[in-house]
Design goal:
The protein is mainly alpha-helical. Keywords: Flavoprotein, FMN, Oxidoreductase.
Length: 151
Amino acid sequence: MDMFVMSTIDAALAAQNAAIAAEALGLGVCYVGALRNHAEEVCRLLNLPALAWGVFGMAIGWPDTEDRRSGTRLKPRLPMREVLHLEHWSEEGQEDRVRAYDRALGRFYVEEGKAGRMGWGEFVASKAVPWEQDGRERISGVIERQGFKLK
């Protein structure tokens, strides 16, 4: 288990350093977690050896910030207060901030012509509950077949 955790941390640290370097050059970065939806196919496609798997993908390129409808647009993000906790974990005010974020994200989607998408809170909850998670429910089997002993 420790080797799995350490290799995952190493992959994330390497990617973060690549992202910082790319952004310093004016490039944009997008992590692609959906890569895990087809973990087995990714291992096969990339011909990954034992003890390797695709933790995430990473797209790097020149960002297109011009939107035909509204000019320069950035998708709203969850407030840092919900991602970064200093000294201790606190949920005080969390529900209000998540609701406000859902409203901001909903307005963004309407302005972008993508009305009808579910809010962030509903989306995250829908991924945590069902057995079917776009293929991610099979990741532990893929990881074990790649040689990691998780038990």
